[in-house]
Amino acid sequence: MKFLPSIPQTLDQIPVNALKGVGANLSEKLAKIGIFSLQDMLFHLPLRYMDRTRVTPMGALQPNINAVVEGEVRACDIVFGKRRSLVVRMQDGTGGITLRFYHFNAAQKNQLTSGTRLRVFGETRRGAAGLEMYHPEYDRLDEAAPLPLEQHLTPIYPATEGLTQPRMRALASQALTWLNTHNLRELLPNEVRRQLNQSSLADALRYLHQPPTNANVQQLMDGEHPFQQRLAFEELLAH
What we know:
Layout: H1 24-31, H2 38-43, E1 48-50, E2 66-79, E3 85-91, E4 96-101, H3 106-111, E5 117-127, E6 130-134, E7 137-140, E8 154-156, H4 165-177, H5 190-195, H6 201-209, H7 217-221, H8 226-238
Parallel strand pairs: 4-6
Antiparallel strand pairs: 1-8, 2-3, 2-5, 3-4, 5-6, 5-7
Helix pairs in contact: 6-8
């Protein structure tokens, strides 16, 4: 009689390569930051958060803030100074901003032609000719297929070389879907958790990876959110 192998029921038993797109190369990079299982992926919490849920007019931008802007490329040139850079100038009707890339290729330059509409996210800095963003994230906009804004605060994860923030966010989002069908190994019994009015680990992790737009960002940054305290309590039990 043939016995089928048992299926792991808890996420600490499921290797991270169960996630789509995670092969040997990516598994090796994740191992460098201590991620071996799906539970490790879920417990790899953001360092901080950014608000990408609304677009800021360029005319309202201030230095040293993270912001989302949308506008049209007016010029894209390679500039030679102390370092070669790709300089992209954008406008939105209220003002303008310069995007600067020190690491770029010919394909990227060809994408950013005059007239191209972009949604850009980055940190503003003072430049010689106004505000600039260095190596911002961007998406090309297509009027025929509108690009929705983020519905949650955007997490920034601890990473390592070869692991970009978009990749880390995609992996964390994918790992969250496993919470719908698999269990986390909780150290706190359900009855005790109810008596202490503690949330489940799954609820805490969903919130911390994808905080709603009305989340108290300062509380999250200070590590004082109740869901962060829930995880700290679990860690204390583990020790």
